[in-house]
Specification:
six-stranded mixed β-sheet, alpha+beta
């Protein structure tokens, strides 16, 4: 697990087991008191920079379907929804998003 952070948020990047060119992005968050100020886009830009620097070919993540702020940032960054499923553990729909790293 590799964690990256700035003073307003953080995220993690791991390689998909047995598929080292695919990144699994998770733990993306902006500090609660700073939300709604554009830091999510700045953090996503930094994440995309790190994915390119680390030479990944593809990245994927999951997001709770009603997390409209995160989905807005994913769309802004050019990610696309790939699938969804109902999580019994979380009691909600989870979406799977991905993007090629260019």
């Amino acid at each position: 697990m590799t964690r990256y952070s700035l003073n307003f948020g953080a995220f993690e990047i791991d390689s998909l087991p047995s598929q080292c060119q695919v990144a699994v992005c998770h733990g993306f968050y902006v500090v609660a008191r700073l939300r709604g100020r554009g830091y999510g886009k700045e953090l996503k830009s930094y994440q995309m920079h790190m994915l390119r620097l680390l030479q990944y070919d593809y990245a994927q993540c999951t997001v709770v379907a009603n997390n409209t702020a995160q989905i807005k940032i994913l769309k802004w960054a050019g990610w696309t929804k790939r699938d969804e499923f109902y999580s019994e553990r979380q009691g909600t729909v989870i979406e799977i998003w991905g993007t090629a790293i260019i």
